Amino acid sequence: MTSDYVWGIFVADGTAIFPDFFPIGIYTTRELAMNEVNALPRDRNYQVLRMPLNINFAYFHKKSGKLVGMDEIHHEHFHFKDES
Q1: Alpha-carbon Rg of the chain, whole angstroms?
Q2: Residue-averaged pLDDT of the chain
Q3: Is 84 within 8 Å of 42 (Cβ atoms)?
């Protein structure tokens, strides 16, 4: 198992099916990512994901074969849009 990760900031869009978010930044540490999240406009919701390097983390449904999630991912939600 690797211990190398990157931290990605994603804009969350609850109107689409999975994946319902898109990347806007990748950082080497959580601290750098959080500094950026705190500086972003509050009119959107964001997610910060810790993603392992050199690992395919796609999770496919066993019966349908469709991409339905991600394994090995730690994520945090920031619901700024919902606060207004």
Answers
A1: 14
A2: 84
A3: yes
